[in-house]
Design brief:
By secondary structure, this protein is of the alpha+beta class. The chain is built from 4 helices and 9 strands, in the order βαβααβββαββββ.
C-alpha cells in the first residue's frame, strides 16, 4: 500500500522514537516555547491526503482518552483506504507521544479541511500546549521567541499585514511548516509561561484557492 514504511520519514536527529519522555519532551523546560519536527510523506500518501483536502469540507472534534484510544469519529469522513490507514496510525502515534509528554491522558482533537484565513494575524493561544500537523497544504507559520516584538501583538490600529510585520524584530524571522511537519506550541496557560506563548499564524490560503488538511490537539481542561 505504501512506497516506503508506513511511518513518515524523519531526520535521525528528531528522535521520534527515542524512549523515555518521548520526542516532545524538549518543549517542556522553561525558555522553550516551540518544537518543530520536520517530516515528509511518501508520494502515494501525499497524493491520498491531498485528495482529501481537495474534497468536501469537514471539521470533526472529539475528546480522546489515550488509555482507550479510538479515532473512528475523527476518521469518519475519510473513505480513501490509503489515507485512512495512514492517518489512523500516524494520529495515534502523535496523540500517544503528546499524552506521554504532558502526563495527561485526555486530549481535545480536531481533524478538518480548512479553506479560510481565520487566524491570519500573529498571535498566541490560551492553552497549555497545542500540537499542529498539516497533512496537506501549507503549514503553520511561526516565530521564535527571541524574534518577537510582543508589544505589537494584537494591534488593531493598522491593517493585518502591517500588524504582522511589526511583530517581527527581523523581517525574515518567520518559519514555515510544510505538509507532514509536527509543530508543538506552548501557550499562555502553560505553568509559568504567561506572556511568553509561542507566536504563530495560519498561512494565507483563501486568496490563493488553497486548502489544508489540519490535525490539531490540545490538552483537556481537566489536566488528567
Amino acid at each position: 500500500m505504501f512506497d516506503r514504511p508506513l511511518q513518515p520519514q524523519l531526520p535521525p536527529q528528531s528522535g521520534l522514537r527515542d524512549g523515555g519522555r518521548g520526542p516532545f519532551a524538549p518543549l517542556l523546560p522553561p525558555g522553550e516555547n516551540a518544537l518543530w519536527l520536520k517530516r515528509s510523506f511518501t508520494p502515494s500518501v501525499a497524493d491520498a491526503l491531498g485528495e482529501i483536502a481537495e474534497g468536501d469540507t469537514f471539521a470533526r472534534k472529539v475528546v480522546i482518552d489515550v488509555d482507550n484510544l479510538d479515532l473512528a469519529e475523527l476518521l469518519q469522513p475519510i473513505s480513501n483506504p490509503v489515507a485512512r490507514r495512514f492517518l489512523e496510525v500516524d494520529m495515534a502515534s502523535l496523540v500517544t507521544d503528546f499524552s506521554a509528554a504532558l502526563g495527561s491522558s485526555h486530549l481535545h482533537a480536531q481533524l478538518a479541511v480548512v479553506t479560510h484565513d481565520k487566524c491570519r494575524k500573529f498571535h498566541t493561544d490560551n492553552v497549555t500546549v497545542r500540537l499542529l500537523c498539516t497533512y496537506a497544504g501549507p503549514g503553520t507559520e511561526w516565530v521564535r521567541n527571541e524574534d518577537v516584538a510582543r508589544e505589537n501583538l494584537a494591534r488593531t490600529d493598522v491593517d493585518p499585514e502591517t500588524a504582522n510585520r511589526s511583530v517581527l524584530r527581523v523581517q525574515d524571522a518567520v518559519h514555515y511548516c510544510t505538509a507532514g511537519d509536527v509543530l508543538l506550541l506552548k501557550g499562555e496557560a502553560f505553568d509559568g509561561n504567561r506572556g511568553s506563548g509561542a507566536v504563530h499564524r495560519s498561512p494565507s490560503i483563501a486568496g490563493r484557492s488553497l486548502r489544508r488538511l489540519l490535525f490539531k490537539v490540545d490538552e483537556h481542561s481537566c489536566g488528567c
